[in-house]
Amino acid sequence: MGQKFQGTTISLSVDGVVAMALMAEITGYNFEDGERSDIDVTHSTSTKKEYLSGLAEADNISFDINYVRGAAGMLLAKDSKDNDTAYFWEMLYSDGSKDTFQGVVKSMPHSGGVDDKLSGSVSIRLTTAPVYVAAP
Q1: Range of the structural domain that residue 97 is part of
Q2: How far apart are CA 3 and CA 29, in angstroms?
Q3: Residue 92 lies in a domain
Q4: Tally of structural domains, the chain
Q5: Over the chain, what is the mean pLDDT?
Q6: What pLDDT sits at residue 29?
Q7: C-alpha closest to that of 103 among 92, 117, 87
Q8: For residue 126, what are the CA distances in angstroms to 31, 32, 59, 71?
Q9: Could you tell me if residue 38 is inside a domain?
């Protein structure tokens, strides 16, 4: 059976010890597993292309938000981006399980329009592997 997104939260902290700051109003997310590059080792007697697995890209997560300027989580995320600093992140799912990881914010674009909300996204490059913690 599937799991509800409703109730999922994303929080961050400078050091993982101080209280986590909640990212306000998450509307969706995409957790991207780092893809490995291909190293082409095809040679003159190959009968088809041959490859070795190269290094994996870092995992990435991006999430969509209702842009709330001045929210504590937004300010910390902007600080991570501006200072190229990895912060501690926690993604708490609706069933009580969570993923924890460290990562640097790569971008935080936002937009708005007439008769519309301010919306945006936050893109993070993970600097550690995510650690899954089962629901209590």
Answers
A1: 9-33+46-133
A2: 14
A3: yes
A4: 1
A5: 91
A6: 93
A7: 87
A8: 10, 10, 5, 22
A9: no
Place of tokens 């993604």: 91
Angle (CA) 117-103-39 rounded to 5° is 110
Contact 13, 20 (CB under 8 A): yes
Show the tokens assigned to 22: 């909640």
The dihedrals phi and psi of 113, each to the nearest 5 degrees, come to -160, 175
Query: Do 74 and 23 contact (CB within 8 A), yes or no?
Result: yes
Residue 89 corresponds to which amino acid? W
Instruction: Note if the pTM is more than 0.90.
Output: no
Q: Which amino acid is at 31?
A: F
In 10 A of CB 6, how many CB atoms? 6
Asked whether residue 40 is domain-assigned, the answer is: no
- Asked if 62 and 124 touch (Cβ cutoff 8 Å), the reply is yes
Angle at 41 between CA 40 and CA 43, to 5 degrees: 125
- For residue 39, what are the β-bridge partners? 52
- What Å distances lie between residue 39 and 3, 19, 114, 120, 125, CA to CA? 38, 44, 49, 36, 23
Residues of the chain scoring pLDDT < 70: none
Contact 31, 100 (CB under 8 A): no
